[in-house]
Queue: 3 jobs
Job 1
Amino acid sequence: MTGGPLEGVRVIDLTTVVVGPICTRTLGDQGAEVIKVEAPGGDILRYLAAGSRSPAMSGKFINFNRNKRSIVLDIKQAEGLAALKRLIAGADVFVSNVRPAALARAGLDHASLAPANPRLIHCGIVAFGTEGRYAGRPAYDPVIQSLSGVAGTFERATGEPRFVPMVMTDHITGLVAAQSIGFALFRREKTGQGEAIEVPMFETMASFVTSEHLGAATFDPPEGPSGDARLLSPDYRPLPTSDGFITIRPNDNRQAFAFFDAIGQPELKADPRFATPISRTEHAADYFTIQVEALARRSTAEWLEIFAAADVPAARYNSIDDLLDDPHLGDVGFWQADEHPTEGRIRRTRTPVTFRGGMREEVLPAPRLGAHTRAILAEAGYAPAEIEAMLQSGAAA
Amino acid sequence: MTGGPLEGVRVIDLTTVVVGPICTRTLGDQGAEVIKVEAPGGDILRYLAAGSRSPAMSGKFINFNRNKRSIVLDIKQAEGLAALKRLIAGADVFVSNVRPAALARAGLDHASLAPANPRLIHCGIVAFGTEGRYAGRPAYDPVIQSLSGVAGTFERATGEPRFVPMVMTDHITGLVAAQSIGFALFRREKTGQGEAIEVPMFETMASFVTSEHLGAATFDPPEGPSGDARLLSPDYRPLPTSDGFITIRPNDNRQAFAFFDAIGQPELKADPRFATPISRTEHAADYFTIQVEALARRSTAEWLEIFAAADVPAARYNSIDDLLDDPHLGDVGFWQADEHPTEGRIRRTRTPVTFRGGMREEVLPAPRLGAHTRAILAEAGYAPAEIEAMLQSGAAA
């Protein structure tokens, strides 16, 4: 028993890279038992990212694959495919990020699997919804960032389209897939019926972007240009201090006036450009210039102390590496020091969400490729001799 | 009956702006009945974003608040607070993004609410986990982008920290909150017990960023610098063509060699710098320069046709406005033309995830402030005279 809200849920995970693995890691973090099915070469994320102590165990792979066990099956061989189907027949959830046509050819679509397991929930993560013309096309995260308007938000802000330097559309879609599986598990408790879920990356991200930025174009005909102008300013960024950066957000009148006092320019409180939220929005460029000029005069630490005393919303800026030493993250035990059985001492992040009703207790280390092949086959009812034969033939590894 | 996996789930929503409303919209989209409880002034998102046809009904508010009904209660008045507690006593889920101390003072924390409703799931969305030193501080999305390393990814990529031009940390945390509620609902079906969930924005986003970018610093001591270098290049962006932009991703050897053929430089296939994925990574700057020079020679449409024929992953770049005309989104019915009862014709996005087991059927339009105050109070058992008295006193509106 794992603890956690998804205790007792068995997940067969036929996914690679990020979009699927963050979905199934989330399920595992919350108590599900996750079996990661890998092709003989293994999930490409094992190799893609730099930084590892042994082959096929990159840091990025480790971070996206804790709380899973690994079985290697060659599903191009009949016996490997049969083993996968036997695993799925005993599972609650099957997650794939394989193209639907290939899945159907292998008999791994929901319609083919449901007769043996009517309670099965299949979650198919796809690049594009199967009813549109892009269906079946390959997609990488930047392709979806390019199509879905993520890069477009930067063009509006700075004049040049850019990608967010994360595989953000994979990551968000994977979180939505885990969310959808939770909803389906809830319904299954009441109806006893499994089902098929389709989670398309493009549509998911187009919904994400347009919920934020459809704006006045929500109306037909539009009431003005699309986009939330507050977010599309070229100046929407941490601002330089004398020794680093700071983020401030003096929004309402109290905060704005406290800010003017704190920077020693109380006369601005009487300036009609800055008297109300609306006038500050109309004179956003001037308001911004005042911030830039003032903040450059002191260090980040000095400003943080001054703004804390004045109750002006302000925060330090953390580089990626600064997160390792952030004092709040230290307080909440965000960084856990794990001893990985083969990779040595690693940093693991705590599950950020807490459930008062009980959390997963034991954390499984990210698995070496095929580390649990024998054990999982045995649990599925394969006899020792059958397992040896599969290992000999390469149907398992 | 709404249809959808969360049919029959009743949600009381005491949230504003984005982080809470996207959580409860997600629950509503999937079939939950959501009651949005607003203070007399209403959710500030009604006013914040530009573009509306009538006051307090901005496009952005409409997009984040479909499938909800609105009741106005002044919970600073005893009768308003009592009405909220009566609603929560009859609900499955209570979602708040109020600071925990204020919630407890009003008796709206889980411990105070559970005696009247032991099956209640309370999801408290907070800026910072309650056990750390930043607990209780106010946070706006840019504060979390600044602290959590989101802005830090841009410093690594371009030398300058930036925010993603969306309220991305609100948006993602809200999706994670909805996910967590689904998991808790599943467990409650089995145990009968409610619970309290805490979803902190900072920790959620620090986990998001470091899962991607801890990299070689996953190991202690680190095996190299943090960060996934593939994503942190200044050139990680859509590339200019002769008339716009295009995104290409020739990753494996077949794709890379097909790309060299397609641009009329087949000799590069024999160039040792580009012979393998590893050598192309080592010579990423050169590989990039070749792409930039080639792509500028033709139009986006020409390149898309050429790369489609050569099976090189490539995609158009969509500005925010281009999404309105994207052909795939048209095929899948992404844009729905709704007639809002008071705001006229609007564009609504379809729920991107599909559940074969049944979807929500009727879509509720985003509510006017307090549109359902009388109806919801009546459903909660208030007599007509009591309702009139509350409206007179301003406890309801």
Job 2
Amino acid sequence: MEFSSKLLEKAVNEMAQLPGIGKRTALRLVLHLLKQPKEQTQLLATALLQLREDIRFCSRCHNISDEEICDICSNTSREQAVVCVVEDIRDVMALENTGLYKGLYHVLGGKISPIDGVGPGQLNITSLVEKVKSGQVKEIIFALSSTMEGDTTNFYIYKQIKDNSVIISAIARGIAIGDELEYADEITLGRSILHRIPFENAIKNS
Amino acid sequence: MEFSSKLLEKAVNEMAQLPGIGKRTALRLVLHLLKQPKEQTQLLATALLQLREDIRFCSRCHNISDEEICDICSNTSREQAVVCVVEDIRDVMALENTGLYKGLYHVLGGKISPIDGVGPGQLNITSLVEKVKSGQVKEIIFALSSTMEGDTTNFYIYKQIKDNSVIISAIARGIAIGDELEYADEITLGRSILHRIPFENAIKNS
């Protein structure tokens, strides 16, 4: 791409660093900003800079938070001894949206992935293991995505906490509500028949 | 969407103002920036701010440019009396990529579109009409997209310049190279048979 302006080229190149944004899309976004009032660009730039500069993580669960302790961890009406292990803040938001989970979270900040160069040391695993060893935790729920990386991470943590008196569970895998059985993949269908639950339980929350 | 941090919420909301970026995508982009070194966010923010602050437009063709007169307008080896009328810088870049056009451009900055609240006054039309009236221009080529807005804009300009001694042309519409005739829409196919060209001309640039 040949640009008539170095300023434009620089802005497009920086925008195109974002995941899923190619050069054409970046150009479209930058040209859009040029057509809007200056304030919009200033607000965007300031919001990004402030976030990156002042970002804080809850010292207990490592979720993004503006306070030392996040709203969820400091909510005493939640079950303090149940901890759900998730990858990032999006999973916390998704689980919170269900309105059905009343325990706390532990945000790992990623999954163990040798291909992407992410080892256990870069994740918030040590603090989770310490939390369990301190005896404060009654149940750990693994809620990582069911990929090879997710399974590896689960197992890595499992090995370090299994000798403590803690219940270790994982979220249920199965056919999604509303899905047709015939279109489900074999592994999911297989798991959902193996891990079947009493019918009374199944109709409880529907 | 419920956010655990006001800073995060603000950044996501600003990012989601961009066209084609929803809240989910915005969150993904912002979380990506959080995982990258601080410098990346700073470079992006600075590039956007600088562009918006220092942006200049060529005083002749209104294309984005870092100089008073852009590279194309100041290139004396180009045909100074042929002016191609386009909507924005992307069209200039696309035409320049062909390597076949050696004249100058005139960037309107949009199309007349009452629905989007864009009237002729917001576009660079007056300077184009003056350019023609001054007698410097031998040929005007309309290269706006063939939508109702494009046609309206073409016609609006045409009415103001038609009484001058200037050739007024429009880029050829027809079946794209490589396209099958049977899948072409009727209007395009109709135009391409009406506006047929001598075969010798057709094979000249292939």
Job 3
Amino acid sequence: MARPVGRRGETRERILAAALELFAENGVHGTSLQQIADRLGVAKASVYHQFPTKDAMVVAVVQPATDAVGALVDEAESIADRAGQLDVLLRGMVDLVVEQRTLAAVLHGDPGVEPVLRAFTDLPGRVQRLQDLLLGADPSPARRVALSVLGGGLMLSGVDPLLAGLPDDVLRRELLATARQLFH
Amino acid sequence: MARPVGRRGETRERILAAALELFAENGVHGTSLQQIADRLGVAKASVYHQFPTKDAMVVAVVQPATDAVGALVDEAESIADRAGQLDVLLRGMVDLVVEQRTLAAVLHGDPGVEPVLRAFTDLPGRVQRLQDLLLGADPSPARRVALSVLGGGLMLSGVDPLLAGLPDDVLRRELLATARQLFH
């Protein structure tokens, strides 16, 4: 089975990058395997070979976020001190947004994504654990609203044209300051 | 020309309400005139008679928001005092979100909506004026990030399951407190 593993991996990464671009531009519903093939200048069969369905592609596109949220929640759950736990959670969320600027907005904004994530990935459950940790026991309405605004705001900030010119380190610093202000 | 105006207006409102529901569930790309007719239990021709294209329907769905943002910006521009102006803007944004919980998320999240709004409505231009007023001259990165998080967070909060149980008056009060905290 002497498969060209490196090259196959490279093709897979290129397909996923093109898929994420098109999802962000047109939504998941508005993107076809054919469009992804056209964007890459390859035959549709090459895309189909790696990802037989669009759902499989959505799952692969979100895999890094699924892994990262799981690792973040595991780390936070091991911290007994509440202030330290919150700090790790806020930093982790901000890092995730800055590292995956486009993905966050696609995940949050597209109604076509949610059912696929529920059916085929652990992401919704992990985000729920993240939310539960941030809220703590018996959260007030003020706490709920602060988390909702922070979560929604972080998700969309990655693709906000208003922030397009900010370098990653400035974006990270200011998002973290904003997160701490909302969630102290 | 003895048209049944009242009834016609009623049908139009029902079509728009069904369209907004379906846009929120499936996105604009994922919604057809046929689905809207099915949801209402009417013939597709009845929908088509009022809205010959889906774009026309999107424009009509956002019309209340277009009007409201225009009125808010006009009011704010007439206020010389900066603190008073900011207060009017933040209150107005929060009111809009609470009154149109679903619409805000559809507008923000769906990649199918943006080009239609640009082509056929004044909404993007009015939102830009709103943003310019909020930012003021020469805004810092911190100010840009605060506005981005606030704008994105407000947009998505209307349909966040975390806040679904909050009555409108509590949601309004807490969103306003959050907005002032971020944007003082």
